[in-house]
Amino acid sequence: MKTKKTSLFFLLKIGYFLNMKLKQKMSQKLFFSQNMKQSLKILSLSNAELAEDIQKEVLENPLLEIDQKNEDDSFLNVSFRIYDSLESSAISTKRQTKITKESIFKEDFWIPEEDLKNFLVKQKEQSFYSKEIKNLIKLLISYIDERAYLTVCTEELAKKNRIPVIKMREALEALQSFEPYGVGARSLEECLLIQIKQKGLEEPKLIEMIKYHLDFLKNKKHLYLAEELNISLKEVQRLYQIIKKLQPYPGVNFSSEPTVFIQPDVYIYKQADSFHIVFNKSNLPSLKLSSSYMKHIQKRNSLKKEEYQYLKNKKNSANIFIQTIYHREERIKKTVRAIINYQEDFFKKGHAYLKPLNMTDFAEHLGVNPSTVSRTVSNKYAQTPYGLMALKDFFLKKTRIASGYVSTQDLKDTIKKWIEEENPKTPLSDEQLRKRIELHFKGSISRRMVAQYRIKLKIPEKRQRYRNFLYSHSL
Questions:
Q1: pLDDT, averaged across the chain
Q2: Domain with 447 in it: what CATH number?
Q3: Which of 217, 245, 261 is the last residue of a domain?
Q4: What are phi and psi of 92, to 5 degrees?
């Protein structure tokens, strides 16, 4: 009887331990699942979204604190603040939150009742220029983008439409006198120079600073500028304050939706024969564990059991959150490094040398799942030697032709180039473009596919291009 009781007790004890082990495994699995979910979410966030997530986490977790020392000493915070406020090297986008102080200066901000092009057309109609110049101004307005910059070469436009270059220049000068000041500029430097001219702020040292030394101003090299311009440091700071009040993108206020200038997540720059990656932490607060709460945890005996467990759980959550942010940075750097290695020709020679890149093949090379790569590049931007690029734009689709695969972007660029260079009196048809592509890329492609690419490029068909030529030539 005693043996039976002992056996029963032994079996119950084994059952208890097995049950505890099962619960522990389930708890660990749930914990891992929650951590993985958080990690994947943070990986897919942009820097701006992550900054918001950090602020939210700091409010909810008393063990997390923003490290003010690191915030004040941040190298990128100092080095790139002026760069971002002047130029942002930005893409104007209509899908995020609100206008930032850095990109829009209060003195030049107003809410328009119409879009930019209509606003310019009204000024053109109210001006006293000749009918010929007015018509040329209208033509130029059609090439103004949402920043208010001119996106076409006036000499090429004049040549294409059989218009004297001097007349086109006269029309451009007239357009650049319109509001918002800076409209019709073809670069940041020209935009700022137009503004100081229209506002009566022209002075030799200011003009020289804008023309030749903006890069040093962006990097806050005031001492160098003082020496280079042979002026005092106080004078450099005075001129900088004038430039700071100018609008780098005059058309931003005419957007029908809130506009944000995207800051890069990484900066890629060339030094000697290699490319370096700098992670942009300028808007990301540095985190640390709260020293006051850590002291409470260390004095375990002075806490109630539930208080200690609460703080311990929050400490674990805080550590995991900090580690997740670190791993996000490392994953982005690793992905960008692999992109640089594959797209090396682009980083050395420019956009024309981008190669087709399949995300699945790229993920296999990195030894990760394609969804991980997709999350890593989602909403992320890199400042490259050739401008700001969305990381996803390095993954170019490819089009199959008889001879193999060709970059879709390469095909589009080729079609665009040929149409820009065509004789406007005898524009190229889709069929003629198809034949040219077959000769150029040594492979076959359908006329329908050529038409699809032309439409995506927002280029009118042959007859409409000819009508546009006749209209502009009759001015």
A1: 78
A2: 1.10.10
A3: 261
A4: -75, 130
The total number of structural domains in the chain stands at 2
67 domain-assigned? no
73 in any annotated domain: no
| 226 contacts: CB under 8 Å, gap ≥ 6 | 232, 233, 235, 236
Residue 417 forms part of a structural domain: yes
Residue at 76 is within a domain: no
Share of the chain above pLDDT 70, in %: 78
Distances (CA, A) of 312 to 18, 33, 36, 309: 26, 19, 20, 5
> What is the helix, strand, coil percentage profile of the chain, to 5?
60, 10, 30
Q: Domain range spanning residue 193?
A: 92-261
Confidence of residue 474 (pLDDT cuts 50, 70, 90): low
The pLDDT tens digits of the residues spanning 339-354 come to 999 888 888 887 767 7
pTM of the model: 0.49
**Which stretch of 58-72, 158-172, 371-385 has the lowest confidence by average pLDDT?**
58-72
Residue with tokens 């500029």: 185
Two tokens at 337?
A: 């490094």
Q: Are 244 and 85 in contact (CB under 8 A)?
A: yes
Residue 136, pLDDT score? 93
**Domain closes at, from 228, 243, 261:** 261
List pLDDT tens digits, range 166-207: 999 999 999 999 999 999 999 999 999 999 998 888 999 999
Neighbour tally for 40: CB within 10 Å? 13
Dihedral of the alpha carbons of 74, 80, 86, 88, in degrees to the nearest 10:
-110
Distance CA 344, CA 428 (A): 34
Comparing C-alpha atoms, which of 112, 124, 237 is closest to residue 178? Answer: 124
- CA–CA gap between residue 70 and residue 74 (Å, rounded): 6
